[in-house]
């Protein structure tokens, strides 16, 4: 039969890489707890209308990239989530999550976009997101930026720069929009076909074009910052004041826009030069009008999303990948008949928090001691637990260090092994 393989752009995550994912996720969970953000988990499949209304019809995601289908049972139009902010907002509205005030939430999980797979861009990709719902002050925008900055520091990432901008409010963007259209119409011949199509639908997206031929026209375009009113300027100032007080460097990038229509006021990206065209590892901003767009009451909100694959790729580039946790011990068991007693001992060790990998039997029985010791060494285990015939006859186990020759070999009574395991955890 033909061998089946994974869908292109949807990748298996295998050991030892999966352990690095877990290490990164553990750091994030610890960070979120310190900032008092709570975990939320939403469905992978959402109504298609949620993303059409939330992200905007004239966006690359909605027009080109969503995996959408019709439910064969009831004809409902459904979509694999291409991002999760809209889903979190939908959940908050549906369950009256903000009834008693604002909520700080975070999530981790897969997203799906139908695009050409390349380094750092996949059809199934994973994001960590943080959303602060029900807060209007710029200090919460800054809090989220501080949180991301703290993560880069804890991970040891050094080539990450913060870019910041303000998209203002709708009336300010409308004025800027009219000026943009007039500018680009005056340079119509310099626009590519995609830009011409979007000119009157979403001219702000032209500023995000990567077409080299259009860059001079884009650089000369009116800046949204010049159209901001006093309130929008104060909001941006409140963000930069907090960043300045905390020593977080940033660059105001007046051309920074976001790919979803729901953003207003603060937008930001953390970027690196080490990943080429996929250099954005975290992006976010304020989206005070999204709740209304998907059927809720007016509610201020701000958040960001981190691309897990890109962060791990950057860690790899810098030689700073999280280390997969080592196995504490490898159980060498030369006799099948001793397995019940051995496994009873191992369960006691595992209950104390010690990780133990046991050599398994085959149809022919157990492998030789020499072969098992090779496996023990290859496993990365710190110790070998030898349950040989002599040891089992005396109700004992021999503990042999595999990584540190200075640790003397010792033979323990089986009941003493649990105490050894506890001491091992206390010195880990």
TrEMBL record:
<keyword id="KW-0963">Cytoplasm</keyword>
<feature type="binding site">
    <location>
        <position position="113"/>
    </location>
    <ligand>
        <name>L-histidine</name>
    </ligand>
</feature>
<feature type="binding site">
    <location>
        <position position="131"/>
    </location>
    <ligand>
        <name>L-histidine</name>
    </ligand>
</feature>
<dbReference type="InterPro" id="IPR041715">
    <property type="entry name" value="HisRS-like_core"/>
</dbReference>
<dbReference type="InterPro" id="IPR006195">
    <property type="entry name" value="aa-tRNA-synth_II"/>
</dbReference>
<feature type="binding site">
    <location>
        <position position="258"/>
    </location>
    <ligand>
        <name>L-histidine</name>
    </ligand>
</feature>
<keyword id="KW-0067">ATP-binding</keyword>
<comment type="subunit">
    <text>Homodimer.</text>
</comment>
<protein>
    <recommendedName>
        <fullName>Histidine--tRNA ligase</fullName>
        <ecNumber>6.1.1.21</ecNumber>
    </recommendedName>
</protein>
<feature type="binding site">
    <location>
        <position position="127"/>
    </location>
    <ligand>
        <name>L-histidine</name>
    </ligand>
</feature>
<keyword id="KW-0436">Ligase</keyword>
<comment type="similarity">
    <text>Belongs to the class-II aminoacyl-tRNA synthetase family.</text>
</comment>
<dbReference type="GO" id="GO:0006427">
    <property type="term" value="P:histidyl-tRNA aminoacylation"/>
</dbReference>
<feature type="domain" description="Aminoacyl-transfer RNA synthetases class-II family profile">
    <location>
        <begin position="1"/>
        <end position="334"/>
    </location>
</feature>
<keyword id="KW-0030">Aminoacyl-tRNA synthetase</keyword>
<dbReference type="GO" id="GO:0005524">
    <property type="term" value="F:ATP binding"/>
</dbReference>
<dbReference type="InterPro" id="IPR004154">
    <property type="entry name" value="Anticodon-bd"/>
</dbReference>
<dbReference type="InterPro" id="IPR045864">
    <property type="entry name" value="aa-tRNA-synth_II/BPL/LPL"/>
</dbReference>
<dbReference type="GO" id="GO:0004821">
    <property type="term" value="F:histidine-tRNA ligase activity"/>
</dbReference>
<feature type="binding site">
    <location>
        <begin position="83"/>
        <end position="85"/>
    </location>
    <ligand>
        <name>L-histidine</name>
    </ligand>
</feature>
<feature type="binding site">
    <location>
        <begin position="262"/>
        <end position="263"/>
    </location>
    <ligand>
        <name>L-histidine</name>
    </ligand>
</feature>
<dbReference type="GO" id="GO:0005737">
    <property type="term" value="C:cytoplasm"/>
</dbReference>
<keyword id="KW-0547">Nucleotide-binding</keyword>
<dbReference type="Pfam" id="PF13393">
    <property type="entry name" value="tRNA-synt_His"/>
</dbReference>
<dbReference type="InterPro" id="IPR015807">
    <property type="entry name" value="His-tRNA-ligase"/>
</dbReference>
<keyword id="KW-0648">Protein biosynthesis</keyword>
<dbReference type="InterPro" id="IPR036621">
    <property type="entry name" value="Anticodon-bd_dom_sf"/>
</dbReference>
<dbReference type="Pfam" id="PF03129">
    <property type="entry name" value="HGTP_anticodon"/>
</dbReference>
<dbReference type="InterPro" id="IPR004516">
    <property type="entry name" value="HisRS/HisZ"/>
</dbReference>
